[in-house]
Amino acid sequence: MPLLLLGAVLAYLVATGGGLKTLQGPPVEQVKVGRVTLPERGVIQVQVINDGPQAVTIPQVMVDDAFWSFTARPAGAIPRLGTATLTIPYPWVEGEAHNVALLTSLGTVFEAEIPVATLTPQPGRDLFVRFGLVGLYVGVVPVLLGMLWFPWMRRLSAPAMNFILALTVGLLVYLAVGTYLDAQAFAAALPAFWQGTPAVLLIALLTLGVLLALGASASPRTRRWACPTASPRGSGCTTLARAWRLGRRLRWAKRRWAPS
Fold first, then answer.
1. How far apart are CA 107 and CA 102, in angstroms?
2. Which keywords are on file for this protein (predicted)?
3. What pLDDT, in 10s, does the model give residues 73-113?
4. What is the pTM of this model?
């Protein structure tokens, strides 16, 4: 019953505005330039998003302080939260900077800058292979090189292993902070209706929840091997200690049951 009532209230507000339409202020135009691409020689494409509360019409476009003809897809006014792609036939110069200005019907100007003009890479086999190589160099090769150190690390003492683990945890914390700052900078460039900063925090909390859920769903057998059940308080049975004990027992079992 509460869900049905909530749905009815939301449907009423969407359909009628709840009787609050008379409280709307003067027209406010707010356009966000999402992406500027150069798909081919002599063509500039600008993707715009209507970030304001009302429809926006863009009748004129300027490139480098000169008016130019353009085509919009879809044509006409851009509705609230709608997008449009403007195609401008302009003889841009390779390696030079260009400025694009969008003029709305109320005279508001929204600018976009092309720092260095060059052809935009198009999706294809070559681009897919290049990104695959980037993923290989970043995600696979370092892991394989790190695994080669395992035979040497098996002979380390407990303090040396704790030092390496602490160094690794510090590096992960540094990467987490850098990722958060980069995500905040990216969220600030998103349209306002996406709520970029709350979305970053929500995704971070969801990721933490998933990791905690995966850690709690470990099998009882794995938890029993990782740490004794009757470990006294303050015995150092932390996550790092459990991982260390688990590795020692697995090595002992391998030597115990290995064929002579």
1. 9
2. Membrane, Transmembrane, Transmembrane helix
3. 998 899 988 899 999 999 999 999 999 999 998 888 999 89
4. 0.60
